[in-house]
Amino acid sequence: MSTGWLDDDTALFVRYGDAFVPRRTEQFDIVCDLLAELPRPSVVELGCGDGRLTERLLGRLHHTRVTAVDTSAEMLALARARLAGFTGRVILHRAGMEEDTALAGGPHGAIVTSLAVHHLDDRDKKALYRHIHGALAPGGVFVMADLVAPVGPAPLALALARWDAEVRAADPAATVPFESARWNTFRFPDPVDRPSGVGEHLNWLARAGFRDVDVCWLYAGHAVFHARRPGRLEEGT
Ligand SMILES: C[S@@+](CC[C@H](N)C(=O)[O-])C[C@H]1O[C@@H](n2cnc3c(N)ncnc32)[C@H](O)[C@@H]1O
Predict the structure, then answer these.
(1) What's the gap in Å between 87 CA and the centre of ligand 1?
(2) Total-model pTM
(3) Å from CA of 79 to ligand 1 middle
(4) 97 has a pLDDT exceeding 90
(5) Which among 47, 83, 88, 146 has most CB atoms closer than 10 A?
(6) pLDDT grade, residue 1 (50/70/90)?
(7) Could you tell me the strand order of the sheet in which 136-147 lies?
(8) Does the Cβ of 119 fall within 6 Å of ligand 1?
(9) Nearest atom of ligand 1 to the alpha carbon of 52
(10) What is the whole-number distance in angstroms between the Cα of residue 232 and the centre of ligand 1?
(11) Structure confidence at residue 82 (pLDDT)
(12) Which atom of ligand 1 lies closest to the CA of 1?
């Protein structure tokens, strides 16, 4: 299972994630809104981390069951503790999102992910989108919140500055660790972060066979995408 994510990243992200991710709750709510009408309760979450989005999904969408997948044993242990109140509605599974087992048990009503796909290179992102398309039921949706690469110097400077400003506004105490960990990848490019442009994602998703491919939210180099497998989603497990 390949991941550039490190245990040091886990400790910092778990402590400061609410500040490090611009408008994190708003992003999670957009993801939930895009799944609100789902008649098929089976959801897979890729790169679930410590289960913050999982918790939001299970809390807001009462009929859903989530299989939450991550490579990190440490993150999954934190998620297990966080999600203890949702017994019977959540399964935690250790796997890389590129592995076949990550999407086993389908077809699924929805596949979601937050801040994980940008760790893959472009070739693996394209392969993942094809794999996700094949694992969804007809009419099922893929919703992704993730870091995206601004295109050109002016959009890059804007995203970089807005990201810094959002961290300062969310929690002034997070500013020092954000700076010292060089977390703003637009200011400090890092091989662990491989964000692609919005246009590339839209193109790859369309070429994988998705319809209704769109960006539903975008701010400070972070975006929420929607894509739907053609067909009509039937009620099911
Ligand atoms: C920035 S955290 C995001 C966690 C969570 N989704 C959130 O939004 O709070 C990135 C997570 O992706 C996981 N990850 C990185 N590469 C992965 C891969 N190839 N497959 C599955 N999980 C991966 C890491 O272990 C980490 O938990």
Answers:
(1) 22
(2) 0.96
(3) 12
(4) yes
(5) 47
(6) very low
(7) 90-94, 65-70, 42-46, 108-114, 136-147, 222-228, 211-219
(8) yes
(9) 9
(10) 30
(11) 98
(12) 19
* Interval between CA 146 and ligand 1 midpoint (Å): 11
The pLDDT confidence band at residue 8, using thresholds 50, 70 and 90, is confident
Phi and psi torsions of 136, nearest 5° = -85, 150
Over 80: is that where the pLDDT of 236 sits? no
Q: Is 52 in the pocket of ligand 1 (CB under 6 A)?
A: yes
| Residue burial 181-218, b: 16+ Cβ < 10 Å; e: rest | bebbbbeeeeeebbbbebebbbebbeebebeebeeebe
Q: What is the residue with the minimal CA distance to atom 1 of ligand 1?
A: 115
Dihedral of CA atoms 45, 47, 52, 55 in degrees, nearest 10, equals 20
Position 40 scores a pLDDT of 76
User: What domains are there in the chain, each with its CATH number?
Assistant: 7-228 (3.40.50.150)
The pLDDT, as a whole number, for residue 10 is 87
